Amino acid sequence: MPRFFSDAVEYLPILLQGVGLTIIVTIGSLILSTALGLVWALMRVSGIKTLDWTAKIIVNFIRGVPIIVQLFYIYFVLPDMGIALSALQAAIIGLGIAYSAYQSENFRAGIEAIDHGQIEAAQSIGMGWWMVMRRVILPQAIRIVLPPYGNIMIMMLKDSSQASTITVAELAMQGKLIASATFKNTSVFTMVAILYLCMSLPLMYLVSWLEKRYATGRR
After folding, report:
1. pLDDT per residue as tens digits for the range 36-64
2. Which residues of the chain carry a pLDDT beneath 50?
3. Any idea of the CA torsion for 116, 121, 127, 131, to the nearest 10 degrees?
4. Domain count, the chain
5. Looking at residue 94, which CATH number applies to its domain?
6. How many Å apart are CA 188 and CA 193, to the nearest integer?
7. DSSP 3-state assignment of 45?
8. C-alpha triplet 31, 32, 36: angle, nearest 5°
9. In angstroms, rounded to a whole number, what is the distance separating the alpha carbons of residues 41 and 103?
10. What was the pLDDT predicted at 121?
């Protein structure tokens, strides 16, 4: 135990640099996945077959390709097409696109959970489709999708470790580099696990709070 604490004092500052990049990747990809996921969901519920099928093909394609392959394609293949991105940019874009498929299904489920009669009532007083979505459906759907949205945040935080495969020096990569240089695997990866847990716990409590709030609101 004393050796662990001495290792923590020595290596924690380096690991905290990785924590900073982990948070940046998580927040950036969360914003992108939310925006894209909402677009795919609105296309699915638009009632226009062309948009519906286009979004369905995109979502199924994204879900069918492993995240790591998407990261490799963005970071290693796009430069051959004249699109060069930094490792951090590629990680944010790759994870954002990958998770947009799951966000889309989450948003679509929330939208479709709203009584269709509300749409008909709003349209009967002259509201267009977009106004109905913006003023009637989405405000109610947000309350429904918030709890699973919190779970997606936790998943994205943990999957941000896959950014290490394209040389982003986030927490998992920093831990691997330190362990390979010092051979102190137990101490280093214990600290990595604790740091991931410290970042995940607030999100877990947030998810729990949202689920209780939503359950209370339904009564």
Report:
1. 999 999 999 988 999 999 999 999 999 99
2. none
3. -40
4. 1
5. 1.10.3720.10
6. 9
7. coil
8. 120
9. 8
10. 85
